């Protein structure tokens, strides 16, 4: 995806089906990782073995057995959100509904807020504070920049210490849950745990309480 954008392909061009050159529905993924819309493949491929129109590699099975390309579908959904923002002159606040127009979009909640509801939202959910964008700014972004905003890393906060905005930093292997540093020190210091940067795995390097001398 990144490489294609660097070649000056817009996201819309990247999502085009290689057969009809349109953003069709139900993008299907072939074994070679090329993607085409289901309707085009149904029309073009009648056999139990599908020949890729781009590279000629064969994929066994019929079109109905192919998996959806979730990545392409997800990007398409985000671009539809952008079109909603661009085309609507008066987006409605997701809290006040018809009583107020939207001024902000919370990227974590995927919900629009008017100015008053946005202030209350930030007070109640401090960890969402840096994950909101003004609607007027989003209207001016290119498709590629809009996707970058939605792809911005989101902080993960400990459920037990959200008010203190404690970020998750460790994984307790004993309890199979994610922890912040406070949880490790106060409640899980006798357990085996490891840095959240290392995916929990059997036999992997881990931390545990010091052995008695």
Automatic annotation (TrEMBL):
Q: Can you supply one Gene Ontology CC term for this chain's record?
A: nucleoplasm
Recorded hits in SMART domains, A to Z, give: BBOX (SM00336), RING (SM00184)
Q: Which InterPro entries match?
A: TRIM45/56/19-like (IPR047153), Znf-RING_euk (IPR027370), Znf_B-box (IPR000315), Znf_RING (IPR001841), Znf_RING/FYVE/PHD (IPR013083), Znf_RING_CS (IPR017907)
User: Locate the B box-type domain: which residues?
Assistant: 153-196
Gene Ontology biological process terms in this record: innate immune response; intrinsic apoptotic signaling pathway in response to DNA damage; suppression of viral release by host
RING-type domain segment(s): 17-56
Q: Which GO molecular-function terms appear in the entry?
A: zinc ion binding
What is the designated name of this protein?
Answer: Protein PML-like
Its source organism is Callorhinchus milii (Ghost shark)
Gene name per UniProt? LOC103190729
